[in-house]
Amino acid sequence: MASQEIEALTQALARLPGLGPRSARRAVLHLMKKREAALTPLLRALEKVNENLSVCATCGNVDTTDPCAICADPRRDARMLCVVEDVPDLWALDRTRLFPGRFHVLGGRLSALDGVRPEDLTIDRLVARIAAGGIDEVVLAMNATLEGQTTAHYVAERIERFPIRLTQLAHGLPVGGELDYLDEGTLAQALRARRPVS
Ligand SMILES: [Zn+2]
């Protein structure tokens, strides 16, 4: 039997995505055995992130700075904007290192079932970003789900009046595929073969 403190830590870890009670127990044991090498650095890293955690006011990315590291990077091509449903999609696309531009996080997808309406997403802010000018291409990178594609159609309608090249990820994406779960090769291919929104 472990102490209450250790039990609380185990339960907190077990609630993390991708972990369960068994992995959490193993992680806790590891942290206790490797206090200097694992526990202390983890604690410092958690504290640092917790102190500085912020949502980027420009793109909606989660980072420890606002603007986020992507929006603040002058090497990024400000003329290209990739629209994603949520932060994991942004991170997945950025991991491919193939998209040189910046991002816009909608904060979800339109869903009649879950009662998510256009005004619940950052679509107005996206329109304002494009209206401000300086953007040549907008890539719609919604998930290949029914709701993702409904959202893409709606967004396309809202921004088609602007003089921009409007593209979407190629349909190499498996139907029902969520970006975050795709391997980087498949995702890179979908990005490379992106096509105009019809
Ligand atoms: Zn940002």
Strand coverage percent = 5-15%
Low-pLDDT segments = none
The largest sheet is: 5 strands, mixed
Give the total of beta strands.
7
List cofactors, ions and other ligands.
zinc ion
Kindly report the spatial arrangement of strands forming the biggest sheet. Answer: 4-3-5-6-7
Continuous helix count:
8
Radius of gyration: 20 Å
Q: What global shape is seen?
A: elongated
- Mean pLDDT comes to 92
Q: State the end-to-end distance.
A: 62 Å
By helix and strand content, what is the structural category?
A: alpha/beta
Percentage of helical residues?
40-55%
Can you write the helix and strand succession as a string?
A: HHHEEHEHEHEHEHE
Core attributes:
198 residues, 5-stranded mixed sheet, binds zinc ion, alpha/beta, 14% strand, 8 helices, two-stranded antiparallel sheet
Describe this structure in words.
This protein has 198 residues and is α/β, with parallel strands linked by helices. The chain has 8 helices and 7 strands, in the order H-H-H-E-E-H-E-H-E-H-E-H-E-H-E. The strands form 2 sheets. Strands 4-3-5-6-7 form a 5-stranded mixed β-sheet. A two-stranded antiparallel sheet has the order 1-2. Strand 1 and strand 2 form a beta hairpin. The longest helix has 18 residues. The protein is elongated. Zinc ion binds next to helix 4.
Write a short abstract of this structure.
The chain has about 200 residues and is of the alpha/beta class. Helices cover about 45% and strands about 15% of the residues.
